[in-house]
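Thread title: Can someone regenerate the structure for this chain?

I was given the following input by a collaborator and told the matching structure tokens would be attached. They weren't. Posting the sequence so someone can regenerate them.
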Amino acid sequence: MSEHLRPLHEKRQQFGKGQPIDTQGKGASILGGTNQNLDLQNPDNLGAQSTNNGVVPNLKWSFSNSKTRLLPGGWVREQVITDLPASHDIAAAQQHLTKGALRELHWHRVAECGYVYTGSVRVSAVNEKGKNQVDNLQVGDIWYFPKGQGHTIQGLDAENKYFLAFDDGNFDAAGTTFNVDDWITHTTRSILAKNFGVKESVFDSVPTVDPYIAKGNVNKSNIDSPYGKLEGNSSYVYKLSQKKQPPAPGGGGTLSIFDSTNFPIATTIAAAVVTLESKGLRELH
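Best answer:
Regenerated them for you:
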């Protein structure tokens, strides 16, 4: 295209205004029956890319389109395979905790990976041999809980938010998550008392409805580890916040990768934390 014609063509195309009109004048204005904010965010759907034939399955999902579950001390919203059918192997969630609020003790039949967005949290976990770990995580830190490992997450700052990924897209399937309060409330109190060696009255105040997230207070006391700690190659935590973010090989940002080579416990999920400078490009891959 000659330089003197470029301004004319750029003026003619209307994708930046949320209208399906290209530089050649093909197309026409949308006069109704649309969501202009979504149109502006997705110019390719309006025909901005002539190489897009429109048959590639949807490969993105916005948490803003997810139902938010409101709870005492926070909220949660998720993306599962019914939201993004192309994602068979990964589901995701955002959770928010206020100070002291606790994602109750639970475990999954799938692995969980977490990344702290905002604030700080305390994670605790125990494996099938009784070894445990309690650690405070800051923005940028990561955790990985193998399937079947009991764990909790507690907010330490006024507001705390983190991202979760699970290695199964069908995360809402029955039997995927087990919450300890749900188990206790469905077990006879006499059995519970016998099991834990306490009086039945201890279980009088157990919630009758699964709390999922519950309000609480931050307890700074030390936790005993009579069966040993999860540390070294067995640690469930990766302190990315304490590591210098290396520049990406091609410049234009930073790139930090975690996988089983530098985070040995993470055997089913690997990820990268990428920052892009203005006009930086994550290359074709």
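The chain has a mean pLDDT of 92.
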